[in-house]
């Protein structure tokens, strides 16, 4: 995964030093996406002055400057300033208009080296420059073709074909007499030849002070900051904000993190869109693969109108504040992140005193899920562990068998997934390639696909049938902490929602809901172990290995605790099922190897006591996590090191128990002198591959059209019978309405966060304080919901809603159809 960023100032004077700092800062915000090399491109002096006259001949222009450096962002910053000093480049030179691009890389094709860093270039004159996040799968074929046309390649990247292809298209158009070919026409033609998943930003000498961004796959946002009077009061549905050509600053970024310090007005660029920034105007084109094909001319696609959204994210969220590291901040944020995860979703009180949960993105699909033959949890890493922690309560409350799949393993074995299955995809980023491939596979096999993610508008949010955002807020540390606990809480709420209102388990459901209300306070209590865990870390600093034993609800805690230690402290650590101890791991036990045993109160407590006895008998060096007041019961001779944690309802205990292990991993890492937030060889998200998903959509449309027809006939013959096929077909029909003929110029207004990006209906209805990445205008209109003040006290500030607040605002069908009709699908 990589991060791309761009900054364009229009009719606003900015010095070169300022422009450089904006670009560097953008990269710093994106560094978590990849950090083995970085690069930027800005204008040189002569090209800048001539750029004011776009008609000046290219021969008179000086190519843009390109700086590329191996290592982290700060290595790039250092090398740029060294270069500036050596070349006497004027940092105080002011630009009325200027377009700069930047990239932070996580190597996939070619080792980290300046030649493989971005921007990648078309030629020594840097006529076209490109920064890229994603993978071009057909780059070899394109490369061979371009080599035949005289291009020489200097990198091993898949990206280099893109600027070269742009130059090829531009030169060809000019050779054929089309001297008026626009930047967007060139890029649309380039896109037509690219296969894979990508988000791209183009800069060109031929189009000074312009930028083009496009995407098919990887995330990309546009930020808009205007300087004219009265703008603050302008509506987000005022399309003139994008069209008025007034002084403004425009930003493009892979992540909202890099935008929020400049502006909160954003546009989430959708797949297949080409965004052209020119003369203070933002034009958006929809890429249609068929347009321009075989007609020999470049396509002239009409533009579409989009409204801006407001970013509901504060700069503090992306700053470390008083903390030294993001991981530390995110561990300590958990009482708050859990509150926002639950806010507006727990219902308690009302006349009938009923307790339940309301999950807007799931409520229309609960019946279908309840009829599933099986629920399959699918995820990777921490997300898999979170699902494992939630499995017992889901099985218990739903009565449906729940199986676990590591995403890559499911794809490798092509494991059985049936149309009677509900497949739940758990992913913090919503972009993990393995999870996306498993999603494609499960969709192909007809399962109902449910997403659980922290990222609004992510590939998982867009490509699943329904789902729940965890709303944990931005998580920047590579090792997931607060997202993990929020994922468990969301899945506990999903279990409650699926369980419905059956009388047999009402008492249990009430206990779990009470536990949820109280959880943030209990997490606050357990965070007080910070110093104790630091002391423990000091004792373990030189160890080679650490074992963690858990069972039942806390088998997942053992896996996740060990994963944290492994990921950041770079210490070998294994999470083990305590029930398996005597079937092998016991052989490892001696007086040197530190072993953590999780033995908090639940149905497995006595078994864990027995495990402790056995380990103790073999002189095991034990650290026991137990419930408060249980020290004597778990450490008979007083020989174990004890960590006492608050007790909560059993199914939520993993949320409490992981916290000391997160703190241990954090302190071990700091004490061992390693990088906490960017551990060796790990990045937060893997590259996504949406090509498969795009293909799937095409296939899905065809099959579903046929299915719909068949079902309509069946329904007519068998009416009034209603079955789950109809449920599902209707659902998918809404999401896969075939392309309609109509004008390209459409206003897409009134979208909620999920809807805007093809996400889940109802999930845009978040709450006032929800720190989700995007909270567009319509979602905000939901905020004035009746809150029962009597019930808000003593419940950790969670809101209570006596009745469903779910919005009925939906995009009119024609608008859904429009957006779907432009999804690019390559055959
Ligand atoms: C990567 C990260 C892990 C993370 C996993 C799943 O491998 O290094 O820390 O748990 O991806 O990420 P996701 O975004 O899908 O939850």
Automatic annotation (TrEMBL):
A GO BP entry is:
protein N-linked glycosylation
Q: Where is the Glutamine amidotransferase type-2 domain?
A: 2-280
Where are the stretches annotated Disordered? 785-808
GO molecular function, a single term: glutamine-fructose-6-phosphate transaminase (isomerizing) activity
- What reaction gets catalysed by this protein? D-fructose 6-phosphate + L-glutamine = D-glucosamine 6-phosphate + L-glutamate
Question: What keywords does the record list, in alphabetical order?
Answer: Aminotransferase, Glutamine amidotransferase, Repeat, Transferase
| Chain ranges of the SIS domain | 365-504, 536-679
Superkingdom in the source lineage:
Eukaryota
List the taxonomic lineage.
Eukaryota, Viridiplantae, Streptophyta, Embryophyta, Tracheophyta
Where composition is biased (Polar residues), the residues are 785-794
Pfam families in the record, alphabetically? GATase_6 (PF13522), SIS (PF01380)
State which pathway it belongs to: Nucleotide-sugar biosynthesis; UDP-N-acetyl-alpha-D-glucosamine biosynthesis; alpha-D-glucosamine 6-phosphate from D-fructose 6-phosphate: step 1/1
Documented EC number(s) = 2.6.1.16
* Protein name in the entry: glutamine--fructose-6-phosphate transaminase (isomerizing)
Q: Which Gene3D superfamilies match?
A: Glucose-6-phosphate isomerase like protein, domain 1, Glutamine Phosphoribosylpyrophosphate, subunit 1, domain 1
The record's annotation in PANTHER family points to: GLUCOSAMINE--FRUCTOSE-6-PHOSPHATE AMINOTRANSFERASE, ISOMERIZING, GLUTAMINE--FRUCTOSE-6-PHOSPHATE TRANSAMINASE (ISOMERIZING)
């Amino acid at each position: 995964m990589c991060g791309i960023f761009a900054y364009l100032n229009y009719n606003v004077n900015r010095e070169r030093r300022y422009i450089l700092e904006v670009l560097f800062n953008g990269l710093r915000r994106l560094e978590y996406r990849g950090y083995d090399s970085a690069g930027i491109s800005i204008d040189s002096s002569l090209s800048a002055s001539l750029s004011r006259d776009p008609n000046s001949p290219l021969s008179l222009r000086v190519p843009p400057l390109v700086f590329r450096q191996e290592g982290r962002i700060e290595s790039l910053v250092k090398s740029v300033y060294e270069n500036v000093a050596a070349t006497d480049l004027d940092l105080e030179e002011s630009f009325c208009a200027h377009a700069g691009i930047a990239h932070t890389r996580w190597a996939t094709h070619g080792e980290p080296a300046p030649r493989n860093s971005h921007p990648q270039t078309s030629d020594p004159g840097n006529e076209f420059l490109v920064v890229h996040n994603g993978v071009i799968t057909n780059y070899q074929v394109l490369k061979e073709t371009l080599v035949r046309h005289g291009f020489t390649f200097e990198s091993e990247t898949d990206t280099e074909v893109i600027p070269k292809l742009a130059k090829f298209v531009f030169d060809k158009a000019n050779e054929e007499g089309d001297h008026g070919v626009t930047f967007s026409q060139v890029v649309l033609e380039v896109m037509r030849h690219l296969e894979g998943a990508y988000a791209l930003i183009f800069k060109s000498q031929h189009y000074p002070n312009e930028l083009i961004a496009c995407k098919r796959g990887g995330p990309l946002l546009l930020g808009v900051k205007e300087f004219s009077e009265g703008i603050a009061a302008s509506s987000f549905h005022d399309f003139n904000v994008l069209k008025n050509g007034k002084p403004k600053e425009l930003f493009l970024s892979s992540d909202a993190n890099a935008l929020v310090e400049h502006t909160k007005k954003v546009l989430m660029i959708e797949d297949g869109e080409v965004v052209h920034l020119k003369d203070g105007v933002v034009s958006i084109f929809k890429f249609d693969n068929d347009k321009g094909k075989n007609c020999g001319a470049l396509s002239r696609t009409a533009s579409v109108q989009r409204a801006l959204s407001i970013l509901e994210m504060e700069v503090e969220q992306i700053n470390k504040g008083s903390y030294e590291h993001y991981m530390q901040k995110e561990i300590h944020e958990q009482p708050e992140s859990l509150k926002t995860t639950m806010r507006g979703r727990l219902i308690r009180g009302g006349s009938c005193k009923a307790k339940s949960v309301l999950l807007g993105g799931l409520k229309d699909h609960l019946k279908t899920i309840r009829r599933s033959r099986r629920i399959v949890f699918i995820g990777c890493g921490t997300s898999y562990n979170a699902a494992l922690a939630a499995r017992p309560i889901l099985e218990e409350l739903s009565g449906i068998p729940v199986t676990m799949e590591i995403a890559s393993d499911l794809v490798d074995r092509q494991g059985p997934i049936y149309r009677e299955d509900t497949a739940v995809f758990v992913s913090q980023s919503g972009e993990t390639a393995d999870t996306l491939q498993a999603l494609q596979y499960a969709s192909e096999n007809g399962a109902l696909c449910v997403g659980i993610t922290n990222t609004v508008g992510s590939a998982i949010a867009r490509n699943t049938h329904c789902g729940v955002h965890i709303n944990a807020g931005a998580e920047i540390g590579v090792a997931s902490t607060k997202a993990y606990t929020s994922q468990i809480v969301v899945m506990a709420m999903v279990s409650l929602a699926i369980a419905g209102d059956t009388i047999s388990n009402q008492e249990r459901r009430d206990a779990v809901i009470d536990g949820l209300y109280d959880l943030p306070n209990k997490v606050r209590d357990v965070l007080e172990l910070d110093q104790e865990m630091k002391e423990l870390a000091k004792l373990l600093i030189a160890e080679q290995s650490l074992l963690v034993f858990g069972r039942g609800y806390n088998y997942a805690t053992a896996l996740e605790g060990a994963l944290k230690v492994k990921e950041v402290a770079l210490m070998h650590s294994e999470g083990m099922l305590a029930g398996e101890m005597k079937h092998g791991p016991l052989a490892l036990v001696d007086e040197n190897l530190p072993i953590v045993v999780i033995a908090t109160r639940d149905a497995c407590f006595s078994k864990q006591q027995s495990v402790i006895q056995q380990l103790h008998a073999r002189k095991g060096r034990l650290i026991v996590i137990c419930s408060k007041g249980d020290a004597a019961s778990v450490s008979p001779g007083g020989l174990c090191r004890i960590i006492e944690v608050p007790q909560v309802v059993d199914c939520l205990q993993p949320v409490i128990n992981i916290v000391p292990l997160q703190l241990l991993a954090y302190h071990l890492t700091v004490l061992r002198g390693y990088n906490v937030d960017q551990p060796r060889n790990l990045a937060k998200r893997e590259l996504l591959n949406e090509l498969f998903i795009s293909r799937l959509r095409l296939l899905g449309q065809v099959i579903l059209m046929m299915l719909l027809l068949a079902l309509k006939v069946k329904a007519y013959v068998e009416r009034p019978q209603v079955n789950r096929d109809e449920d599902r077909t209707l659902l998918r029909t809404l999401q896969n309405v075939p392309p309609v003929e109509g004008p390209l110029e459409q206003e897409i207004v009134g979208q909620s966060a999920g809807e805007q990006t093809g996400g889940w209906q109802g999930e845009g209805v978040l709450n006032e304080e929800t720190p989700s990445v995007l909270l567009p205008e319509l979602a905000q209109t939901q905020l004035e919901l009746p809150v029962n003040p009597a019930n808000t006290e003593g419940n950790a500030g969670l809101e209570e809603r006596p009745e469903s607040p779910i919005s009925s605002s939906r995009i009119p069908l024609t608008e859904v159809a429009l957006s779907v009709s432009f999804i690019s699908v390559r055959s």
